[in-house]
Amino acid sequence: MRDCAIHSNFRLYFSVVLIAISSGFFVPLAAQGLPVRLDSLRAMWYHPASGVSDSLLLEAGIKLQGVYSKRNYDSFLCINNEMIAYGKAHGNRRWIANGWRQKGKYYHFIGKTDSAFFAFRYALSQIGNADPALAVKLYGNIGLIYGITNRLDSAVYYLKFAIDMAKNHPGAEVPQGVYGNLAECYEIQGNYVEALEYHDKELKNNINGAAKYISCYNSGLIYKKLGLRKEASEQFLKGLEFSKEDKAPVNIVRSYAALMQVSANMQEAQRYLDTGLALADSLKLKNPALFLLEEAGKLFIDSMQLDQAAFYLKRCIELSNTIKEENNRMQSTLYLAKVYCLKGNYRESLRLCLEVQPYFEKNREGEYLVVLYDVLSKNYEALGQTERALYFLKKKDLEAEKSNDNTSLKEGISAFLKYKTEEEQQKLQLAKENAEALAEASQARERLSFWVFGLLSLFLAGIAGFYYFYFQQKKKSGAKLAVAYDALDGEKQKLERYNQKLRRFSGIVSHDILSNLDLILSTGNVLVGATPKPERLTQYYDITQRTSQQLKTYCIGLLEEARQTHEQSDTVPLHNPMTTLRGVLERFEPALKSKNFRVETHQLPSTTLPVALTEHLFQNLVSNAIRHAATAASPMLHIGTSTDAQGRPCWVVEDNGPGVPASQMAAIFQGNRTNGNGGGQEIGLSLLKQNLNEYGADIRVEERLGGGARFVIAFKDS
Predict the structure, then answer these.
(1) What is the pLDDT of residue 616?
(2) CA-CA distance, 391 to 691, in Å (whole number)?
(3) Is 538 inside a domain boundary?
(4) Residues 6+ apart with CB under 8 A from 604
């Protein structure tokens, strides 16, 4: 259990350091607009003249999009290998060292501690102390790995060396997490004074809220272990404040759990417990709630408030069953058995002990085995089974002895022997890497010599042939360049056409969205009025929902139409425009009714116009009719068919408004008028005419018999 805790704490400090480093380089990268795609990074690596420093490019490679947040380890490793290859190809040891350092981080993340250790050592051998800032980081990384593998003396040595080196070189800084890792080592060694000192230094060296919380939390645990309740409480309170600033609810709940354990009285402990549980329940933090409930149960057992202890332990068991957290369920069940034993319910206590016994004996968790065997011994003694009671009492004493420091010596010796074996293996591996690098360099020199000699011989033997080949290549290149320029000019023209289409699309969307918003607002004024009624509000809500959904569908249709090429638009199948027309009339129904419009529609012939363009057409003409014909004594809107001079079918939209003066019939489709009563009508009609022309159709306006405007939509031949 203690080894697991050590490993977890070291990993936690290391994760905080990585997050801080990543976030520190994200802002300058974004500010310079650097791309983070792998192809772009390759291009920058091989073109240093771009004006970006090697270090920034290196961190850009490390910061491949999502590599830390999404755990994209394969891409991470790919980039590191490219860094190393680039460094070897150009003789840049700094690149090689940085590549191996990042490779070490990769191995650490995936749990390959031995490989991570070798990578950090190899990186250090490449750079030495030539780059103090990088060397300080590598010494800190090596110290971290020593700490994770429980080689504490070596960990302390490397971590302190990193700190001293940073102090002696103005360009280097102590990386975040180094002080904290050193404090962890001292704590495990029992040197609590040094541990507290370095936890305090880590707190001052950090700007990350999560890392500050960890420093305070670990310091509080040390004070608690030493029996200094007041000092522990102060540290836990600091950690709570940092967690709140960092908006980290999990750490906040853990802080409440820690404060509960060092409270001056049970009332204060209950307050922390209730606050932590309320927060965990409101945010549905299941695992922190489990930790809080189990610790509450233990606390109430120690204070002999057995009913309260049973209450919280049962809640912990229920929650563990819900989220299938077996470890917490077993631990809470064991302490519930202890509660029953203390209350005299020996048979129920015995039943629970026998239920969890196989789990703890399989996992060999000494702390819990001591509690288990102690409760079993007392239960059997109370039930009159003396031999069984004595048997488990002996097992309890045996486990208690195992939990002492007697095993630490054996673990230390085995760790030392394992370290020596690993060190020899790493030396062999390093020698192999060096031999491969030398062989590769030798082959590269031989290839270079061969090509230089060959090129020189060819130059001396055939200079005339070289010039002939040169001029031939120049002629071919000129021809290819001319073809390329023609292709580029064609692409430029195509791009201009697409840009024109995009501008029309944006104009359509802005114009029609505004008209629909006006429709929603005017409907609200009509239906709601000065004295809103529930049924009118419901009707207005339904109309608004329907209009908004239709508007969304219309915009999506416009977007799909805008993405189509001219070739695609020629293949649009025939469709019935009546479905689209009914949808538009339904959308404008409240406005039409409010103006007392009489609407007449006749069956329209099928068309190859896109559905989005058909809807755009009817929306513009219907909204224009509402805007201009509403002043008539009996407003009328007629939508039907007609034929042109060639006998082709046309669509006709008529109203009995004031009409369009003959002098302005051509101008309303030009979109260059900004005054008058038309408002945005000319812009919408101009965009409509352009889009219809693109699909071989056209629109014109005539004077309606009896007064008003008559819009005629003519189509190309089938």
Answers:
(1) 84
(2) 93
(3) yes
(4) 577, 578, 581, 639, 640, 641, 651
- At residue 638, φ and ψ (nearest 5 deg) are -120, 130
Please name which of 147, 140, 226, 246 lies closest in space to residue 189, comparing C-alpha atoms. Answer: 147
Distance in angstroms (rounded) separating the CA atoms of residues 549 and 359: 57
The verdict on residue 611 lying in a domain is yes
Report strand pairing: 649-655 vs 636-643.
antiparallel
> What is the C-alpha separation between 485 and 490, in angstroms, rounded?
9
For residues 228 and 33, the answer to whether their CB atoms sit within 8 Å is no
> Whole-prediction pTM value?
0.46
Report the run of H or E that residue 700 belongs to, with start and end. strand 698-703
Separation CA 269–CA 276 (nearest Å): 11
343-360 as b/e, with b when 16 or more CB fall inside 10 Å? eeebeebbebbeebbebb
Query: Is residue 504 scored above 80 in pLDDT?
Result: no
Which residue, 298, 333, 368, sits at the end of a domain?
A: 333
Residues 6+ apart with CB under 8 A from 134: 94, 97, 98, 101, 127
**Residue 526 or residue 706, greater confidence:** 706
Weakest mean pLDDT among 153-157, 265-269, 425-429: 425-429
Hey, which residues does 714 pair with through a beta bridge?
650, 698
* Parent domain of 679: 498-714
Which pair of tokens denotes residue 444? 């590269």
Mark which of 390, 406, 422 sits at the end of a domain: 406
The CA-atom distances, in angstroms, between 144 and each of 152, 693, 710 are 10, 71, 83
Which residue type does 429 have? Q
